[in-house]
Amino acid sequence: MRAHPRRLGASLAAALTLTLAWPGTESFVQPARADSAPQTTVTEAADALTLSVPATPTSPGYTVEVPTDGALALTTERAGTPVLTTAGGDTGALRFRSGGAWQHATDVTDWSWKDGVLTLTADSTLDGATVEARVTPAADRYQLDWNVAGTEPDRLGLAYDLASAGHWYGHGEAETPQGGPGTDQPWPLDSGEVEHPSFGPASYHMIDPFWYTASSAGLRVDTDHVMDVAINEGKDGLGRFDVESADPYKATVFVESTPLEVYRDYVGIVGKPKKSDATYEQYAKPVWNSWAQFYTNIDQQKLLDYATDLKDNGLDGHALQLDDKWESNYGNLTFDSKAYPDPKGMSKKIHDLGFDFGLWTTLWINLDSDNYKFAVDKGYLLKDAADTAKPCTVTWWNGTAGIIDLANPDAKAWYVGRIKTLMSDYDIDGLKFDTRFFDDKCAPRDGYKPTDYQRLGTELADEFDLQGVGIRVHWDSTAHQAGFVTRQVDKGTGWDSVRASVSQNLAISTIGYPFVTTDMIGGSGGQPAPEKDVLIRSAQVASLMPLMYSSTSPVDTNDVTTGQKVVYDQETIDLYRAAIKRHERLAPYIWDQVQQTLKTGDPIVRPLFFDFPKDKAGYTVSDE
Fold first, then answer.
1. Is 536 helix (H, G, I), strand (E, B) or coil?
2. Is the overall model pTM greater than 0.90, yes or no?
3. Contact indicator for 535, 553 with CB cutoff of 8 Å
């Protein structure tokens, strides 16, 4: 038998003011504090508690209703209309996994309203386990923290009814059953299916634990742990946001008048860019990168021919980058002498053609590299999470490697010193950092968390010119504030990837990374070279984005899947060149938008409904 929710104790009641209430209800007013919502009330009716936050000149006000005669749930309303509702039924709103089985909070057994916090205690579907939740309201949001007692769960999660909030956005690059993020990026998220089980700070994907909705609600999960995120998985109409930890679950629910205001609230927490790491020229002209043009089948002569053909055909650019497969082995940071007999001379010729020269690099050292044993002996590599007596090893597309531990000052100094010597010796102007700075198989250095490696990677990269291709760091305020260009994950070479690149620029921009570029015009992904129309349209789309990141050239291209030469006609070359010129004409406008973003934090690439929130049709437009 469920205990009736207790009334507030006499000592607390003495500190509260009883206000007028409808017959059959009790209402308590919490004296306003500077950091809490003004004149917030908690009202108890026969079957529910209602927390009410009044409107202010800058916020719309809202209520949160919690049933007291059924399973713990939260319905958030604005002006009497639901804007966000937790899931019910067998899923449950506040859910946890214990002994390999999912459980969830059930009947509310106790509650209190004290010092600006509504505390709720509930039974659960697991005998002997209880859930305690704390709702801390502010003018335009509330904090929702909760934990489980009586068992040791390995996961905690929130679940929402997607339809209660209209369409859902945010997240960043989404893993989907349809090939996302490489060939699919649903916009809105609920128009497809998101199944992202390794959603965390060590991910290669550009992601943040922030979502916002057409109803102008928003959710931010504050965690350093890996999450398992599912949005409309199997078309079930649910959003599940699970954290792989028994630590108390911490979330912020935003309630605003428009989606743009929710975004601004979020940026107020994580921070806006303090600068743009890209220069005006890097916004105005493309960077050309060798990857999609050659993949690892690249050498000195091919790179020079590539540069010469670009120049001869008027395909302008500010830099030419030599991507993967220039090293004698991964981690050596020395040129392969057979493929690159004269790297200094190569650099000079590239400069003479009018390009800056850039180089791909990584912090991953392959086990057969000359430097691997040295780095192990010096303790420069991340340790294995399961056995910290040995280095962590990770498998990637180029073999098996260890990762330099950026939290070790000596390791960072060693790596940075060698990179700077390389750049000085061969007149290299900038770097493209690739791979990740941390892996979930590894253990952070004592005193550090996985999220700290996003900060450390950001600080490292900030020492170098990234040449407009940026870097993939996320989940940390330092990453938001660094102002790096953000390049997307590798795309395919078909029409689906062109569409995904547009939606993904919207998604990345609206989680707080405004200086976005598509990943290589025409795509890559080890797929056949793009058809003529795909390459042209990809260039035209990129010309309207903040930056252009080029690789597949309309001249001298090879199909990586067949090794055969691909010949594009003169119209392809002319239209690609026209896209570059169009982007260059737009550069003064784009640069103005960069400066505006530095002032406000608002994204450059943004959905129509950020500017026209009352136009309902705009909430499903994915390409404008």
1. helix
2. yes
3. no
